[in-house]
Amino acid sequence: MARGLSRDLAREKNAKKGSNDKNAKGNKESLTPAQRAERDAKAMAEKKALKEAQKAKDLATGKLTPEQVKEEEMRKAKMREKQKLSQFASNNPLLAKNLVKK
User: Fold this and answer.
1) Where are the stretches annotated Disordered (predicted)?
2) Domain limits of the chain?
């Protein structure tokens, strides 16, 4: 293969790679940080509403029992508490060490 041809092929390949970033969020829409945060918050709220609707549907159809829902919520609460403690420990190692000793 001629050297010039391989360069041309590489350029074409790289040009194709760059054109597939249509779904990348970033600042390509020229949004301010506040607008981007609002957009993301709206998307998260929609996602949460869909999950709540699915949970209600599962409860109504009998796929889930109220006990299962309660157990899942407790498990998630424990996980969040563990994450908070872990984050606190990484930010304040000496304080976390003293808390664990007591």
Assistant:
1) 1-102
2) 33-63, 65-102
